[in-house]
Amino acid sequence: DSKLRVAILGCTGSIGRQALDVCAQHSDLLEVVALSAHGKTKELVDAARTHHVACVAVTDSSHATDPILAELPKGTELLFGADALARIVVRDDVDCVLNAVVGAAGLTASYETLRSGKRLALANKESLVVGGDVLMPLARPGQMLPVDSEHSAIFQCLVGEERNPIHAIWLTCSGGPFYGRTHDELAGITAADALRHPTWSMGPKITIDSATLMNKGLERIEAMHLFGVPMEQITVLIQRESKIHSMVEYEDGSVIAQLGASDMRIPIQYAFSYPNRWDAPCSRVDFREIASLSFGAPDMETFRCLALAERAGIEGGTYPCVLNAANEVAVHAFLNDECSFTDIACLVERALDAHVREEAESIEQLRDVDAWARSFTAHALKALARS
Ligand code: NDP
Ligand code: MG
To answer: What ipTM score was computed for the predicted complex, to two decimals?
Structure first.
């Protein structure tokens, strides 16, 4: 039959679970054939049973002995370790890979999916931030479908406009939970404060990135790669209501926007259905109930991560890889109360300052740069704790 056969990498996360919901709602159009989780084996086994998948992977091998795995249906193939993702994407029964892994750990899976010629539904923005120079030349038009809501919006605003140059991209941003705060007010924020995000319910890493605005900085770099537009043509726009998901401005002054409910199932589903549209996976917006839409510019001096990402994106080469790795280490430390909210930007800045730029040429090289930036930031963190 003509169902799209999908593999969901990171099926136990916020995006992964919403993708499984989309697959359940459209079981006449989608078939889930493979799943991965890092350590949540109970949730993985439950999803494998519900969706009758052929193959599951546990990427953190220390969970290989979890007794719950014995409850997988007979005949389910079981893989372990980080390499398992690359083995899933090349399976003959997989047409489309949703990469919903968090962090640079998703890079190899994106790379192998593009090389295999299959559709890549990409939530893992870190893949493009780190490896955009290596990944983009592998992608044929329409092969890589962004799941990040802003990038899905931009992608949709570009459909049918392939011959028209982009004048500017308006990348919308909710402003995060600490919109309007001063630098001093930010310094005292705890992990618990930051995990209470207003608009979207997301995994812990992107929730912190949304609070520091590093998320928007990463998204600007993601957009540069996806749409071939330089940094200065991508303007961050505060849109507090999160109803406009982004806009594209053309040479003639026309601005095209994509709007809709603040629900990730819409861009997830579009990455599967493109170029078609299927029934809505969530409730629709009634515009009569939206009193107003507000716009503003971000405060890049207070939210320094946005400025650091701009610097890394303009420098290019291996700088975005360093930005991302240092940020992953710093966010992890913040979540464990090992540094303050404002230390995140300081740690990222130190790593960028210490790095010597190279052209980004291969996955192996990026893995080495990533490892260097992680160890540099871990040392900087210890120095911070002593001071
Ligand atoms: P979560 O933390 O909720 O989920 C992450 C998933 O990745 C889990 O399935 C987790 O497994 C798995 N995982 C964690 N570490 C590794 C690793 N080292 N190797 C392989 N798999 C791993 O994240 P989100 O769903 O929020 O985000 C996923 C991606 O989507 C991120 O790149 C994020 O930036 C992007 N995104 C998310 C949005 C959202 O609304 N959440 C919006 C736009 C983009 P386990 O649960 O077993 O630990
Ligand atoms: Mg986004």
So the answer is: 0.99
Q: Are 348 and 307 in contact (CB under 8 A)?
A: no
> What is the Cα–Cα distance from 112 to 138, expressed in whole angstroms?
10
Amino acid at 120: L
Q: Which element (helix H / strand E) includes 128? A: helix 125-135
H or E segment to which residue 45 belongs? helix 41-51
The answer to whether the beta carbons of residues 313 and 360 sit under 8 Å apart is no
Ligand 1 pocket check for 214: Cβ under 6 Å: no
pTM above 0.95, yes or no: yes
263 CB near ligand 1 (under 6 Å): no
pLDDT digits (tens, 9 = 90+) for 213-243: 999 999 999 999 999 999 999 999 999 999 9
Give the number of the ligand closest to the Cα of residue 202.
1
Q: Pull the structure tokens for residue 93.
A: 């029964």
- Helical ranges in 188-279 per DSSP H: 191-194, 204-212, 214-227, 265-273
> 10 C-alpha vs ligand 1 centroid, how far in Å?
6
